[in-house]
Amino acid sequence: GQVPFLSENVTVRIAPYKELYHYSSSAVTSYAYREYVLAAGTANQTLSYRLHQNITFAGCPYARLPARQRLSVTRAFALYDGQEHVLRYALAARVGSARDDAENPPVNPCHDSTHTCEATARCQPGAGMEYTCECAAGYRRDGRGCREVDECAEGLSQCGPFTVCLNVPGSYRCECRSGYRPAEDGQACVPVALATDPCEDGSHPCAPGDRARCLPRAGGRPACECLPGYAGDGINCSDVDECAENPCHLAATCYNTPGSFSCRCQPGYEGDGFQCTHGSMQRLTPCQHEQLYPRAVLPGPSPVGDGHVPQCDEQGRYRPLQCHGSTGHCWCVDAAGQEIAGTRTAPGSTPPRCGSPEPTERPRTMCERWRQSLLEHYGGSPRSDQYVPQCDAGGDFTPLQCHGDSGYCWCVDESGREIQGTRSEPGSTPPCLPSVAPPSVRPSPRPDVSPPATGTFLLYAQGQQIGYLPLNGTRLQKEAAKTLLSLHGSIVVGIDYDCREKTIYWTDVAGRTISRASLEPGAEPETVISSGLISPEGLAVDHLRRAMFWTDSGLDKIERARLDGSERRVLFDTELVNPRAIAVDPVRGNLYWTDWNREAPKIETSTVNGANRRVLVNKDIGLPNGLTFDPFSKLLCWADAGTKHLECTFPDGTGRRVIQNNLNYPFSIISYANHFYHTDWRRDGVIAVDKETGSFTDEYLPEQRSHLYGITAVYPYCPGGK
């Protein structure tokens, strides 16, 4: 919504006020006149407004409602949240009976909704407490109410020939029958003229089909386009002689054919004509080829001088400086071995300086890519308590890294990994050397809370910690919620659970790692993937195959590995823009993931080995943040922060239906029993949704308010299946 514009340093003062509410069997109404003051220093401006409220509800026949109640507001205040760009308005108020009727004169029933007119009739106030019930246009009197007139059924419509009359509330409309369209006057309907396609009936002017193609266009006139291998305007197309451009290998002959060409290696050479090698030898570069086989046997001029045998480097490329073995002349050549004009020197003189490389743009280093990824994750401007990597001028990690303005600093190796034992307290800085060898495993802090007891519970990621929220059936046991793991300096995003080993796995976009921790007492976190990650987000564990899958929105990849980090491989690195959530169906061996590419969001699927990739959903979705596969109902469900929908479909994309269409800003979702549980960035909490009715049944808002990321459910057993 919108709020009025206020100049800087202006205060709005709203004095205590009272409102009188009038009750009927199905409505509450209120009229109010209020004043408020704009204070700017010593200058005050008094303004006012009128407020008319009409609240309808489904009445209870056994309820005894008061005729009036008074709302007394003792304090009103506003709070602006700059991070969420939300203005919150609050009241300190109480509701009580309105005993003093002397100051509240009688109100006409039309104004306080105590009239007996039905919803289809309009209440017209009269003198004093009198009123009448009137029908709107398109409705007919029926007792105390009004009945809608069906103009189509009663023959009252004005629709003309070739039309269909459609009744709508209070009116009707006319539509043309199939095969007809509205006439120019907008009143009648005329037959639709069937347009002919010149490309189909052969009346187009294009060249024959073996030389050109006919393209239909709106308006009837087609376009003509020559086929590849032909040139012209589409009406006249002539064959292109591709051999004139020497497309074949030096040791091959080119043969032009209508619309195409072919290359054939010369006798003594083998290959496809585009690459030819002598006999069965390995493929040679042009420079190596000229060294072994004199140019005299091949047609065309020599690129580096008659009778000259070129000098090649270790990779088989022409050396920038070439000198003739017998004449003593020297000159510079380009990458193709062609002499560069003006560089030839006489015998006995100083050879020219060749091969100065052209300046190129340095590719971004790992430190710079990680820094950019975190800055984007923080929305461009990190808070003072958020970590951002420090890179030197060459793009390498500076040996000393510090965590925002917290005062904590530590040394890192060349890969940006913290060197064990170097972290210092605020006020002292550790001496860091860039040559210190990196540790084999990145150290992780111990859990500061003992593992939870058995039973079903939820685990959710909240910045630098993983929270524990037990379930009593499907109800949230909010009073027993607590922190399971504290992970200083981390941003935990994706989270999943291995039911066989009772181990949780999570991704960390700040540390660029994937880690795990057993729920057994005394267990410590262990990093299983510590390299080759930029922004790991979604994570899914396959407890049957002992494998995990994850998305990386910084590298635009989907990868898999065994649960110990071994046998890692890339499944997909193309046609991905912003991959986020990922889910696995271990029994059927299928993988599902979302891509919230704002230009073309989608949900895709493949096998767990990366085969049979295809788009499952790409219509009517906006920001598919959360994704879950329910092993019991066999449904794939997602939460969309763009459309605000929670939807489900069968794994083949059929049977799509909306469960809830009024979510706030969901991030991650998990299915358990007859409920969905999702994390929400507007509420900064865990929200419970009933699967059957789609209604919100419960919510948990942690005391520490910050964004919640991934969520998963932990069962005391593994789902069945092999």
From TrEMBL:
Intrachain disulfide bonds: C323-C330, C402-C409
Comp. bias (Pro residues): 428-449
LDL-receptor class B repeats by residue range: 502-545, 546-588, 589-633
InterPro entries, A to Z: 6-blade_b-propeller_TolB-like, Cueball_EGF_LRP_Nidogen, EGF, EGF-like_Ca-bd_dom, EGF-type_Asp/Asn_hydroxyl_site, EGF_Ca-bd_CS, G2_nidogen/fibulin_G2F, GFP
Segments for region (Disordered): 343-363, 420-449
GO molecular function: calcium ion binding; Wnt receptor activity; Wnt-protein binding
Keywords, comma-separated and alphabetical: Calcium, Disulfide bond, EGF-like domain, Extracellular matrix, Glycoprotein, Repeat, Secreted, Signal
Keyword Repeat: yes
Cell compartments where the protein resides: Secreted, Extracellular space, Extracellular matrix
Any one GO CC term of the record: plasma membrane
Domain Thyroglobulin type-1 positions: 284-354, 364-432
Pfam families: EGF_3, EGF_CA, G2F, Ldl_recept_b, Thyroglobulin_1
Domain EGF-like: 106-147, 148-190, 195-238, 239-275
Gene Ontology BP terms: canonical Wnt signaling pathway
Main location: secreted
KW Glycoprotein (keyword) present: yes
Domain Nidogen G2 beta-barrel: 1-105
Record-given protein name: NID2 protein
